[in-house]
Design brief:
Elements (H helix, E strand, L loop, with lengths): L1 H20 L4 H10 L2 E2 H8 L4 H13 L3 E6 L5 E6 L1 H21 L1
Antiparallel strand pairs: 1-3, 2-3
């Protein structure tokens, strides 16, 4: 019984992580922001195939989940920058490991 309960708890944790980071582009967005603070247009150019509405949606979800913060400069035209929060920074080692793993197994 204890093993089943522990297994169910572990699966629930993985499920939450998948829900939060499961968007098609979220890992890639986090990777680029982890390298440097980014503006919307920079992210869109770097990712390439993402639509403006999808990028906006994924950025809003990452912000709502506490991984990134958005800073709006009070100027015209408006300038918005995205950077990692402390939670997002704590995920950087996972991103780096994923990148290394991918380079080892998919190159």
């Amino acid at each position: 019984m204890k093993n089943q309960a522990a297994e169910a708890e572990r699966c629930a944790t993985v499920s939450v992580i998948q829900k939060v980071l499961g968007g098609k582009w979220k890992i890639e967005i986090l990777y680029y922001i982890s390298l440097n603070t980014r503006r919307f247009g920079e992210l869109r150019r770097q990712i390439g195939d993402i639509t403006q509405s999808t990028l906006t949606k994924q950025l809003r979800e990452l912000e709502a989940d506490g991984f990134i913060s958005r800073y709006i400069y009070q100027e015209i035209p408006p300038k918005v920058e995205y950077s990692l929060t402390e939670l997002g920074k704590s995920f950087v080692p996972v991103l780096e490991y994923m990148k290394q793993w991918g380079e080892t197994h998919f190159r």
